[in-house]
Amino acid sequence: MIVLNKPLTPDLTKLTANLSQVNESGWYTNFGPLHQQLTKRLEEYLGVKNLLLVSNGTLAIQVACKALNINSAITTPFSFVATTSSLLWQGIDTAFSDIDIHSYNLCPTALDEALSQDNNYDGVVATHVYGNPCDVQGIAVVANKYNKKVVYDAAHAFDVKIDEQSVLNFGDASTLSFHATKVFHTVEGGAIVFKHKADYDKAKRLINFGIQDDGTLGEPGINAKLNEYQCAVGLTLLDDIEGVIEHRSTLFTTYRTELEGIVELPVWHEQASLNGAYMPIYISDRNRQESVITALKNNDIQSRRYFTPSLDLAYSQQKSFGCENSQRLANGTICLPLHNSMSTSDVLKVVNIIKHTLKDEF
After folding, report:
1. Which of 54, 65, 126, 245 gives 20 to 30 Å between its CA and that of 95?
2. To 5 degrees, how large is the angle CA 304–CA 360–CA 102?
3. How far apart are CA 274 and CA 342, in angstroms?
4. E-strand spans in the chain?
5. Which residues pair with 153 in a beta bridge?
């Protein structure tokens, strides 16, 4: 079977050595030695500063918004449910603005139109969908025009760069998920990269119950720290992550080359590097979608409609500024298998089944 996703497996010898350090020190959580090592190595590898490890990607979004005093936000309807549910769970007044039909990301023009109608929002929460960077310059222009904070959900964009600059350095904060299904993981976990040190310092207090540096209590916080065992997994996997991303990117490029003209594909940011996080395709006709999914399933190949439904429909009680593009893409986007354990021959097998199924189209 070719599975949709397969988590990276840590080398047990290396992992055991890292775990032994934890047992020897007796420091299992609360910003321990491995937490400090992983923070430093990730900052160096990703080319960022002010990186704060947290216990998962959902809390990363919530803590980022709390640190930036975002109590109301406009977000994308085309993303994993956690992008929106994390905001709603925290009581953030949330509205939806449409996406660009080509990139699948939050559209700066639509965002401008939305804010021109209703400027009563503190911030913007945008997702780099499938690891394809948003139009960060366009969003920055709109955010500056209306004086809004920007948080990027970069759960799919680990190690992605725009013109050699980490995508995590755009906006006021960028959040990462280190869930087991991601390109890089700590089983469960995440991180926030802040533009400003003061926001990082505030967030670090918030994830430790709001306890101040001197031990006194300040603003109420929460427990969102990443423990040492999970940091041990991260340190182990980080040793080999460069090769993993290179391999996944090669598979991704092969897919897109072979499927060009057969199915519709998102238009990728021209200045962006690749990380091979996901392989989305779009098929407008519902019957052809089902034919492809069925053909893949019959050949023991997993696929997934990702993302559906459009979140403005799932959370219809929230304000929407019109999300026709998102609704269209949510009804026809399918993700194909892509992970480090796959080979080029696996990709070609998937491609050939799709080509055979859709042969009447070309």
Report:
1. 54
2. 50
3. 17
4. 51-54, 72-75, 93-96, 123-127, 149-153, 161-162, 165-166, 173-177, 190-194, 279-282, 304-305, 319-320, 333-336
5. 127, 175
Helix boundaries (H) for 311-357: 311-314, 324-330, 344-357
Q: What is the pLDDT of residues 46-63, one digit of tens each?
A: 999 999 999 999 999 999
289-310 residue pLDDT tens? 999 999 999 999 999 999 999 9
Look-up of token digits 């109608």: 117
Count of structural domains, the chain: 2
Domain that holds residue 137: 12-238
For residue 22, the SS3 value is helix
d(CA 193, CA 171): 10
| 325-347 pLDDT, tens digit each | 999 999 999 999 999 999 999 99
Grouping H, G, I as helix, E, B as strand and the rest as coil, residue 264 is strand
SS3 content of the chain, % helix, strand, coil (to 5): 45, 15, 40
Judge if 262 and 290 occupy the same domain: yes
Question: Which tokens is 79 given?
Answer: 């993303």
**Is there a single domain that holds both residue 187 and residue 247?**
no
Same-domain status, 213 and 231: yes
Tell me the residue type at 318: Q
Distance, in Å, from the CA atom of 219 to the CA atom of 212, rounded to the nearest integer, reads 9
Q: Give the confidence band of 44 by pLDDT, cuts at 50, 70, 90.
A: very high
Q: Are residues 36 and 182 in the same domain?
A: yes
Rg (CA), the chain: 21
User: Which residues are registered as beta bridge partners of 58?
Assistant: none
37 pLDDT above the threshold of 60: yes
Report the predicted TM-score, pTM, of the whole model to 2 decimal places: 0.97
Residues 320 and 349 placed together within one structural domain of the fold: yes
**Residue 144's CATH number:** 3.40.640.10
In the numeric block, the tokens 């949330």 are attached to 94
